[in-house]
Amino acid sequence: MEDTYVLATQKRSRSDDVNGGDTAKKLAAAQGTADPAAALASARHEFGEHGGVNMSIEASATFTVMEPETMRRMFTGELGPDRDFFIYSRHFNPTVLNLSRMMAALEGTEAAYCTASGMSAISAVLLQLCSHGGHVVASRALYGGTHALLSHFLPRTCGISTSFVEVSDLDMVEAAIVEGKTKVLYFESVSNPTLYVANIPELCRVAHRKGVTVVVDNTFAPMVLSPARLGADVVVHSISKFISGGADIIAGAVCGPASLVNSMMDLQQGAIMLLGPTMNAKVAFELSERIPHLGLRMKEHCKRALVFARRLKSLGLKVIYPGLEEHPHHELLKSMHNKEYGYGGLLCIDMETEEKANRLMNHLQNHAQFGFMAVSLGYYETLMSCSGSSTSSELSPEEKALVGISPGLVRMSVGYIGTLEQKWAQLEKALSRLN
């Protein structure tokens, strides 16, 4: 199949395609746009079947053809989604494909495709890029599920090994790369939960000198950072978080070169096609309606996180937030971020012990009505969790200490419901009661 078919920007008639008519492609003009919101606004808008301003939901699992010969040509790759020919929704679905175009515009990549979860997106990319016996260099500071995938599951099932490194140490990263064997450098743009910021341009330079593909998880920083525009090859997301914003959908995305996305959908060798982490078309429709206001939501998440971080610090609490000038990576983030969108919607409060962390969260939820004790992030309500005993529990005590996850680290995804001063009063009241 052609390398650019996932980026089709205009519909084609079936008669033209079958008869070999003029099928000149118009690629999305938004790819080079610096501002993610501007890129989204420039992307193809899919209208509904009857002219509705919203696209139709293509709920079919399978698709018909008008001529028997057409099906053979689809299975050989001669006809594909670029010409509005679809086989089966585990392969490509028109509604999911449209959401994928929006994700590609958001991240400034040539192509994208969406999956049933963030972990399925991560797993599929790594399995597509690495063969048995392959090697990955990855950040020590990763979401617990990703860490478990790399340290336990992939070595056992696929013979793929991982060297975990401190990504702020470029010499350590370079030394860990084994030329000819290392296939992927993997890290999070802003780490979960420690909020370390990766030097994306420099890490990409180190990896690319050795012929290694750079994969960046940008779940914590959509709109705030654009890893592909900073040199990354592939960007993965758990769309379930900020992009969805409703804490009601599980979804993921792979954004990168069209050649990679097409290879992942290949009928013989594609990790998404053959492993089948298919996104439901109804889910894709829901998400496509939320992405247009992602920029507005991110600005408010980030604005409130910065205000709360500054005020909490003034009260003497140990606050971790990359928007604070004393954060070790503040200047680095300032040099890379899309300035309209702030410094991120998450902050951490280090209460030192799990007992103190639990007392704080209990007061915030059950007495001050400030937020909820729950994992995940990007919800309109504030969500809080003690990372060491929840989302990072897959790491050993030694691994947690190595990456700076203290037993009392409270990760807080700052919501935007209510007024800022109303929520601050609730937070301050809980702290006073705690003391």
TrEMBL record:
Q: Name one GO molecular function term.
A: catalytic activity
- Mind listing the UniProt keywords for this protein, alphabetically? Pyridoxal phosphate
Database matches in InterPro entries = Cys/Met-Metab_PyrdxlP-dep_enz, PyrdxlP-dep_Trfase, PyrdxlP-dep_Trfase_major, PyrdxlP-dep_Trfase_small
UniProt KW rRNA-binding keyword: no
Modification type N6-(pyridoxal phosphate)lysine: residues: K241
Give the protein's cofactors. pyridoxal 5'-phosphate
As for family, the record states: Belongs to the trans-sulfuration enzymes family.
Name this polypeptide is given: Methionine gamma-lyase
Species of origin reads: Flemingia macrophylla
